[in-house]
Design brief:
heterodimer; A: alpha/beta; D-Maltodextrin-Binding Protein, domain 2; 23 helices; about 60% helix; B: alpha/beta; Rossmann fold; CBS domain Like; six-stranded mixed beta sheet; four-stranded antiparallel beta sheet; about 40% helix
Chain lengths: ~500, ~300
């Protein structure tokens, strides 16, 4: 609880921004859904044959899993808020259409007969009699749709749409439940407030309700349109994967680029998504730069030849191979940084000191196998525990653990060895040591800025600015920075700036 | 002068005539009552006047002009309507319900306000007490008084009333009948009033039209009908409820009959009297009914009549 409050205090600015995005996303989706579903429900009254079909269609749309729907939309409308809003509208159609239709359909026919007999025109009958009588049912549908939208809008974060989902995703990624809780609680509260507000709307006179809705539509729709059409200085979009390390790196990119060229503005999209998502976003020009690892490029993003793979396995630098293959896709990578964020076998510093161990091969000195906690994937990978057994000839007494529990198990003494990544903040936090991979089992993962070739050609000053990080940042330095952000709750921007200043990359005058 | 004229009007649904070759005239200022059992076609006849239902054949004239040549909105603004279900709009106050048609006619605001109060007073509801209340706060009798106000508010030359008091308790019904008579004497509005209750017809009607199975049996003043009923049905209708009882759709007798799997020889909505002949000859009748086919014999029908009385 205490923890939650502290996280809230340090992050309240971000939370507020995410909340604003979430509200904007939800309101736009709700208003669009209203504009589609309510007239459709009214129209269906006089076309009962279509009503059944429409109910079927909206019902089927709702059964599409939200993740699948987002995935299907990305190739069509790209990433960002567009696919998120479309998906939300799709889900909101059914409850609003269904309740509008049934609400109008179930009006006692005596009322419509009376309205006809009094010579009311069709529009007047609709506004004065039918809609007011159906309003409680319609509002019920809108409330259902709203709660649905606000809940589902958390998934927008997966496609770069922002919102409270960024907190939830980040929390899951960093194994930080307070962040997840913060996002989830805010979304739940938002749903409650909106639901209550809409229920109130019903009690107000008809015209006031319409006025309030129109004002909201204008306010949010207007800002969205303005943002879309207003002329803006050249903006370079720099995105990062989930987690603190990419966020620190992109903040460094931003500061370096803006120092090099005062005329460009850098827009950051931290915690933007997973690898393939960012890679596609880069190719489709939704983003301009993101930090990627050479190892990830050669294993997941390009297809090296068998010969190249052999070379990499034998310890060759993967950067030139990655760059060569990327060029075939009209992409290019800047110069890599120093640290290697790869698998690491981790022990406690006390343990290492007591047995004078710094290298992985030195673990062969123990007669009885050490207790090891490995996650499932590491345990089964050729460049994981299997390689340790064959290349180093080491055998451990292995327990497979969930990745999130490894460090606690090591800290608590339940295991003596665990796997991790060489820049994990926990190494700094729990006073651990990442053993040197002296026989080069683990692939090399060096970070470098990935961009399109056309972008790099058009912005030589950006490439130059980013290459200032070449061969900079060691593993302990990255561990420390991750620790500052993850554990100490510092902002990534501040940590990035401190590093750049300390290393003379950022001029004090700024 | 004839305000309304039916000229050989027929209404068929799927080939079945609900109103058949109906001709009648209604004079200005008349309180004209259409009376008959359910299924006699009286409500259909009424609803053809304001074109809620369109006739299949024949013409209806309002002030010597064919209805189909009249602008629908003008027609309906000139013909008030009171429903059996009352149907005051529950989202509007009593005052707003009454003001509805004057508003559509764009009367000046203060005139509408004055008219609402005037109408409420005319039906013995204190305006300041009732004007701003919602319909659901009123008793059934009070609601139908407001319903009558709503129909009369824009001073239409004619008002249609479709069994307006059949859902009310006997005391409210009597006082509302008295009120309608009083209003009619005062306003001289032409009223076409539908009822299944002969007593109500006799009490209210300047003239009465007795209908049965879509046909007009007799149109006359109450006194003439009492003195010279045109058919035995009309005289029975007068004598009391018996003819209505014989018009009962036969499915009402299901609980007195014997269930059977046989194919029925009569539809379930056949009037009781149609099967009296075969029964008198000592035969069974079999009835096809949605709830299950059944057989009836004479003593079972007598059992029903004894219970129904």
């Amino acid at each position: 609880m205490q923890n939650l409050w502290e996280t809230f205090l340090t992050r309240r600015g971000d939370l507020l921004a995410a909340l604003g995005e979430h509200i904007q996303l939800s309101l736009i989706a709700l208003l669009l859904a209203l504009l589609i579903a309510v007239p459709l429900g009214i129209w269906a009254q006089n076309h009962p044959r279509f009503a059944g079909a429409l109910l079927q269609v909206t019902g089927v749309l709702q059964t599409i899993p939200s993740l699948a729907l987002l995935g299907l939309l990305i190739p069509i409308v790209g990433i960002g808020t567009a696919p998120a809003i479309i998906a939300l509208v799709v889900y909101a159609l059914l409850p609003i259409f269904q309740n509008t239709y049934t609400g109008l359909h179930e009006i006692d026919p005596a009322y419509t007969e009376a309205a006809d007999a009094f010579g009311m025109s069709k529009p007047l009958k609709l506004v004065k009699v039918q809609l007011p009588l159906a309003m409680p049912v319609i509002i019920g549908g809108i409330r259902t749709a709203t709660v649905l939208i606000i809940g589902t809008a958390t998934l927008a974060a997966l496609v770069g749409g922002g919102g409270l989902g960024t907190f939830i995703l980040l929390g899951i990624n960093r194994n930080d439940t307070t962040l997840t809780l913060l996002g989830a609680i805010a979304a739940a509260l938002l749903a409650l407030v909106f639901s209550w507000f809409i229920a109130r709307l019903q009690k107000w006179p008809w015209r006031v309700s319409v006025g309030v809705l129109a004002a909201l539509a204008l306010a949010f729709g207007g800002t969205a349109v303005y943002q879309a059409i207003a002329p803006q200085p050249e903006t370079i979009v720099v995105a990062g994967k989930l987690g603190s390390e990419p966020e620190i790196l992109i903040n460094m990119y931003k500061q370096l680029i803006e120092q090099a060229d005062a005329n460009v503005k850098v827009s950051l999209k931290p915690n933007f998504g997973q690898t393939s998502f960012l890679f596609n976003a880069l190719k489709s020009k939704k983003i301009d730069v993101y930090p990627e690892f050479t190892g990830t490029v050669v294993t997941s993003l390009v297809k090296p030849t068998a010969k190249q793979n052999q070379a990499i396995a034998n310890g060759a630098d993967s950067y030139p191979i990655a760059e060569k293959l990327l060029n075939q896709q009209q992409l290019t990578m800047g110069k890599p940084m120093k640290y290697n964020n790869t698998y690491a076998v981790v022990v406690k510093q006390d343990f290492a000191k007591a047995h004078q161990i710094t290298k992985l091969s030195q673990l062969n000195q123990f007669a009885t196998p050490l207790k090891a906690g490995f996650d499932l994937e590491f345990n089964s990978r050729q460049d994981g525990y299997k390689g340790i057994q064959s290349l180093y000839g080491l055998t451990f007494n292995v327990k497979t653990l969930d990745a999130s529990l490894r460090y606690q198990a090591l800290d608590g003494g339940q295991v003596q060895v665990t796997d991790g990544y060489s820049t994990d903040s926990q190494i700094r936090q729990y006073h651990l040591l990442a053993l040197k991979d002296d026989k080069q089992l683990f692939p090399v993962y060096r970070g470098a800025p990935l961009m399109r070739q056309d972008f790099a050609k058009a912005h030589p000053q950006v490439v130059k600015a980013l290459n200032q990080l070449a061969n900079r940042i060691t593993e302990p330095e990255m561990q420390e920075m991750n620790y500052q952000v993850n554990v100490k709750g510092q902002s990534a921007a501040k940590v990035a700036k401190a590093y750049l200043k300390a290393h003379g990359l950022l001029k004090e005058a700024r | 002068m004839n305000v309304l004229k039916f000229d050989h009007v027929t209404k068929r649904y799927d080939g079945r005539a609900v109103v058949e070759d109906l001709s009648l005239t209604i004079g200005e200022g008349e309180l004209f009552v259409l009376v008959g059992a359910s299924g006699s076609g009286k409500t259909t006849t009424l609803k053809m006047i304001n074109r809620l239902i369109e006739p299949t054949d024949g013409d209806i004239y309002f002030n010597d002009k064919r209805l189909i040549d009249t602008d629908l909105r003008d027609l309906r603004w000139n013909i008030g309507y009171v429903l059996q279900q009352i149907a005051l709009f529950p989202n509007m106050t009593v005052g707003a319900n009454i003001a509805l048609i004057p508003q559509m006619k764009h009367w000046p605001k203060d005139q509408i306000k004055q008219r609402v109060d005037e109408m409420l007073e005319a039906v013995d509801l204190a305006p300041e007490k009732y004007r701003d209340r919602m319909p659901d706060e009123l008793s059934g009798g009070e609601q139908q008084r407001v319903g009558i106000c709503r129909a009369l508010a824009s001073k239409p030359p004619m008002v249609l009333m479709d069994e307006p008091f059949s859902a009310l308790d006997p005391i409210s019904r009597t006082s509302l009948q008295d009120m309608v008579l009083r209003l009619h004497r005062k306003l001289k509005t032409t009223i076409v009033f539908v009822t299944h209750d002969m007593n109500e017809a006799m009490k209210l009607g300047d003239r009465i039209a007795v209908m049965r199975s879509g046909k007009l049996l007799q149109v006359a003043t109450p006194e003439e009908i009492a003195a010279n009923p045109a058919t035995s049905f009309v005289s029975d209708f007068f004598a009391g409820a018996a003819p209505a009882l014989l018009d009962t759709p036969i499915f009402e007798l299901a609980s007195f009959g014997t269930p059977t799997t046989e194919q029925g020889s009569y539809a379930e909505d056949t009037p009781l009297q149609v099967v009296l002949g075969p029964l008198a000859e000592g035969k069974h009748v079999t009835v096809t009914a949605q709830a299950g086919n059944f057989k009836l014999n004479a003593s079972q029908v007598l059992g029903y009549l004894a219970k129904a009385k």
